[in-house]
Amino acid sequence: MSLDPEIVVLYCQHCVAQDAHVAVAAEQVRGLTVRPTLMPCSSKVEVPHLLRILEQGADGVELVACPEAKCRFLVGSLKAEQRVSRARGLLEEIRMGGQRLGFSRKEKLSAEALLDLAEARAVAVKPLGPNPMKKGEPA
Amino acid sequence: MIRTLLAGSRLERVLSAGHFAVTAEVGPPRGPDPEAIRKKARLVRGVADAYNVTDNQTAVVRMSSIAGAKILLDEGLEPVMQMTCRDRNRIALQSDLLGAWALGIRNCLSISGDHQKAGGGGKLKGHPGCKNVYDVDSIQLVSILKGLRDDAVQQGGDSIEPAAPFFIGAAWTPLAPPQEFRLLRLAKKIAAGADFIQTQAVYDLDRFAQAVQKAVEMGLTEQVAILAGVIVPRSAAMLRYMNANVPGVEVPEDLIKRMKSASDPREEGLEVSVELIGALRQMPGIRGVHLQAIESEELLPEVAERAGLLPRPEVLQGFMLQR
Amino acid sequence: MIVAEWKPVNELAAALGSHGKILLVGCATCVAECAAGGEREVETLAPLLRMALQVEGHPVEIRAKTLERQCEWEFLEELDEIIPEVDAVLSLACGIGVQAVAERFPQVPVYPGVNTTALAIREQPGLWTARCAACGDCVLGETFGLCPVARCAKSLMNGPCGGTRKDGKCEVDENTDCVWTLIVERAKARGSLDSLAQVRRPKDWSNSRHGGPKRMFREDLRE
Predict the structure, then answer these.
(1) What is the pTM of this model?
(2) ipTM of the complex
(3) Which residues of chain C have a CB within 8 Å of the CB of A47?
(4) Which of B260, C8, C132, C179 is most exposed by smallest CB count within 10 Å?
């Protein structure tokens, strides 16, 4: 890509180690722009949220959830996974590319591991090209 | 036993005279060529007392059963015009019945009809997106037929002149769930006016015999002539398919094994059919067989011959004069 | 309630591509209950459509609003000020709501965003099944509370047909129960199997759509 891919990572406090969140700032690292976003819980993320993030120009979104057995809302992370799946389907339908959305289960990620996730997502979206919604981008 | 004839068809006369009746199925073509029916007529002539012409079976458009029935009549064969409730409302059904009678058709089998979804999904496209009708169901259609015959009246109350007497048929699928209710439903068809019954294909003689025995106990076999369905098997795959996909058809595992290990499946299929017919002839309550060889009508003469069903009995021809 | 399902998004994008400003309006009643046209669906469809149209090269401005119901003239008044600012409306309401919007605002094209399909109940989360066919001649008291018009593929009054599968499902759909099998079971459980022995007469369909577009008039409720 000519421009750095912008990857938004959504996670809760249990998914990421305390210092990792602070360490990963919204700056250019490894050739991509990572926007780490702390959420109350993955289960709070709904399809409209994911689509709006992409509508606003992010090239990819990675939703990090707790391991299934550790979900504090019992089935919350399962719902999050279902929603990501639905949103991916919708993105495929409109030819935006389902792989702009990712879902993984992690706990106590270090800063490095968090960046690994973001980088993996950037690699996945690379073949799609930049998000057509980016301001000033040709359609 | 002297009995006033209801419609005077050959099928009725054969049954009235106490013979073991034979009907056979003739499927109309997926096109307008009358020669296709004439060819089949030539193949099966003499095999049966009457020949069923199906009505857009499996919701696939074929030449209409009324036209097919008329062509058979012209070839000297007596038709049983099948009528489903899927495509026509009560106006069209009654109108077609009046027309059928005018053309000389005297037997009618009333069935619900496969839902139009059955028409697509296989090799054919069918018309799965069409509207269906099902204005009346098969039992109500039996009542309608009775009204046209015995009271010279249409379903809505208007009279017809003269009456249109048909020998009225209905179907029975004794082995489909809910099994105990199937006998009650058979009783309903008889109460509505059914004169003869054709059953779904029989392969499991024990289970079929149990159901028929119950019908005997309920007195139903006195009131209606039951003809058991026999479909000539051509392969183990065909039997397996029917067992899995055709509701009410139960094929015992050893029969499938037998067909599978046969060195000559065609011959084995004929043997099986002959054995089934032999057993059904002995079964109390069964007064005939309904033979089907799906798109292989040429097998039927051989089956009938080997099963000892030929020649068909002589009965007085001619139709009922108007009352 | 009335249930509906999304039309394919690309179909909507194709219909809307020629307009510059669209009002996407949802309904918080029936279609919200079946997750087709409520606020959440509006908030899903708005970014989705914007992206779809951008990808196709027809970027469009989408304004979004969800009304309590679109089948009440009073609620539609809330759109009075927005309509002059848009050149088309995409309504996620059932067919009734879409038509109400079109009737109140004949000056703009109104497109349906969903296909209205049935009168259904939510059997379980994520599963709605049709229960009523609005036949205008309810016989539920005689069929043990199970509707053969809506739930039998052939609307038989004297079912079941010969097509019941071995597991009691309908020949038309392996996931759908044969409702007549259910009726027989209930009749048995209540010791009333003989009530099903009566031949039910042909139905009078004239109080439904078959008798013409339904017009229900109550003199006592006129103003």
Answers:
(1) 0.92
(2) 0.93
(3) 40, 44
(4) C8
